[in-house]
Amino acid sequence: MSSEKVLIGVIGGSGLYHLDNLTFVKHVNPETPWGYPSSPITIASLPSGTLIAFLARHGPGHTITPSNVPARANIAALKSLGVRAILAFSAVGSLREDISPGTFALPTQIIDRTKGVRPASFFDGSIVAHAAFGDPFSLKLVRWLEGPVRRALDAEGRGVQLVTEKTIVCMEGPQFSTRAESLMYRQWGGDLINMSVLPEAKLAREAEISYALIATATDYDSWRPHAEAVTAAEVFKTLKANAETSRHVAATILEELNAAAAQGDILAEETGSMAFSIMPRADTQKQEEREKLRFVLPEYFSD
Ligand SMILES: CSC[C@H]1O[C@H](OP(=O)(O)O)[C@H](O)[C@@H]1O
Ligand SMILES: Nc1ncnc2[nH]cnc12
Q: Which of 160, 146, 150 lies closest to 218, judged by CA?
């Protein structure tokens, strides 16, 4: 564990393997009870000297498939550094005509289409917990982000639009969806699609970390009649510009985000949220399981 606490963690997705305008401090690679994170975590300082943590979800050279991202180690490692709020970025497909490639979105709902092959809980032994997940993103954090992200996009001057209140489908991959699936997700109410927001968002909730996603649209997936179905080449066309804009957004808002997290209100929904989710059998809990869980939730599993 680090002695310097870092409140804000940033997870970079496809195309976003580093941030700009930060002073590099060090790399850390905490071993967690769930293994090592996707990559060493970069600790960097903002102009004020405030530290933030950056983690590349697929590794710095994009060598980890969405199904193999060590999400438990990633979230546990960030929590061990003191992280209380995560701003995650993701390249996503659009399921709506008005969300054109290049658009940024702050989703508020998720439809889970992963296939049960990803470990999705810290509670996989005999200590049972049922985290609330009706609102899978931290709504206070999402609402807070709207203004600063919109202002950052306006200031960049590329005309990038921000849309809110959207539903993201998380599919297993690594292959993209069929046309029939893509059409079905639209009927279900999906607006965006990726392969990464789960189990990341679930694990952040279990670790009592406020979590929000900036979804950056790269393509129209495969639902449009008479249009090509999505290919990786199509995604790559927009990925670089989206990553540049993501870096601009991060550089613009992180100082303010850290100040808001330090003040506390945007963390309020998640802090303490697991207190009534863990089945109350402390007397029978196995010591080795308590030790593992102490790594992410010291509040509930300290002796
Ligand atoms: C490169 S296309 C599919 C890939 O991109 C997204 O990654 P991330 O969410 O980490 O930006 C999507 O979820 C898939 O993993
Ligand atoms: N169409 C798509 N489906 C799933 N994940 C994606 N990431 C970027 N575009 C995607």
A: 160
